[in-house]
Amino acid sequence: MAQAGVVLDKDQFNCSICLDVLRDPVTIPCGHSYCSDCIENYWDQDDYLGVFVCPQCRQTFNPRPVLARNTMLTDVVERFKKTGLHDSVTPQVGPSFAEADDVECDVCTGRKNKSVKSCLVCLASYCDLHVQPHYESVAFRKHKLVSASKNLQETICPRHDKLLEVYCRTDRLCICYLCLADEHKGHDTVLAEAEIQQRQRQLGDMKQSSQLRMQQREKEAQELRQAIFSLTRSARAAAEESDAVFTELIRSIELKRFEVRELIKAQEKTAVSQAEQLLDKIQKEITELKKNEAELDRLSHTEHHVHFLQSSQSVAVSPVLSALPSVTVDPNLTFGPVMTAVSDFKGLLQEVCQGGFVSIYERVRDVVIVGPPVPTVQLSTTHTADAGSAAQMEAPTVMPPRGLDQSPVSPLNPFLTPGPVVPTFAFSPFGAKLSTGARQRHLQRRAHPRRK
């Protein structure tokens, strides 16, 4: 085997019960191999329970398996013993002294060595040197060795000084065989190894379920981070685009304001020009009339009769006045109707903006990542085989973040939430923020019909 490049160790062919090289090895149905005498003696202790457990994997068998000699493993072990390779590849290691956290050997005198095994029958811990009698002597063959432990007394029944090898499901206690025949008679009992195996399976199921839930939560967290990133990027783009739209609207309003001002000025210039032309014409006619009046006054004072008769013929006919257009004679003439039309336009624009802004608010409010809370889900995981013994694990309820209340306080601003400590604000149709009183006055003014 050494020539083939395979390095073997003595522990590979050790029986897990006696911790020595296999003698007459047999293999049980789960695949583990033991010395024939070791596994027979181990199962003889549990024969009255009718349940037989593998000392390594804790798998149970019922009925008791029939043991057969493993001839292939026997040949390998015999060849391994003959080669003596286990002595060459496993050098002798000197005793190691016990440190602060190590279990001290109960047999060593002076400075104690580190224990490697504890005996549940002797209730003592042994180092590598002093544990050898448990491997070599037939008297210690039925003693049960475990990894070195400081709490050996916890495995002993305080009443009967026997190993706690049975678990009472009724009282949920570890008991010994004498307790089983005494105060725990008639209770639901099982081997402690079998209960440990069942608990380990349940813990494995719980661990697997926890891992699945953790993976699900990690996936949801990744999706949530991706949603936050996408929403943030989309919000930035929407804000920039809305800024461009509102800037264009502001420019359009400014242009209309300039056009109205120029229209008023043009109308003023046209009306004043027409009035001035008519005024000039009237002044000319007044001048002609004054001239004619002066001529008539001069003739009326002429004493020469011949000259009077000749001159009076030329001024006998009065000058003909031209027809004048209708003139509005009102000292309070103003652009009042124009201002009325501007006010009507303002009201109409406010109504359009208000409806548009409410629609915008509703669309913005609908863009959410965390929705309303979901119903509570309860998951139950059984920890023991006892009827009615279950541990329920309740999934946490996802609560919406603050400020995302879906109940608007006013149609002008659906984002506002009711609350006495939060000051109430609304937005005017043009986006200006109004306090509570200003909003009420604004709504009262909007309640009156517009002027016609």
From TrEMBL:
RING-type domain segment(s): 15-58
B box-type domain segment(s): 152-192
Keyword Zinc: yes
Keyword Repeat assigned: no
SUPFAM superfamilies in UniProt: B-box zinc-binding domain (SSF57845), RING/U-box (SSF57850)
Stored Pfam families: TRIM_CC, zf-B_box, zf-C3HC4_4
Stored InterPro entries: E3_ubiq-ligase_TRIM/RNF (IPR051051), TRIM8/14/16/25/29/45/65_CC (IPR058030), Znf_B-box (IPR000315), Znf_RING (IPR001841), Znf_RING/FYVE/PHD (IPR013083), Znf_RING_CS (IPR017907)
Coiled-coil spans in chain: 265-302
Keywords: Coiled coil, Metal-binding, Zinc, Zinc-finger
GO molecular function, one term: zinc ion binding
Protein name: FinTRIM family, member 67
Organism: Anabas testudineus
Lineage, uppermost ranks: Eukaryota, Metazoa, Chordata, Craniata, Vertebrata
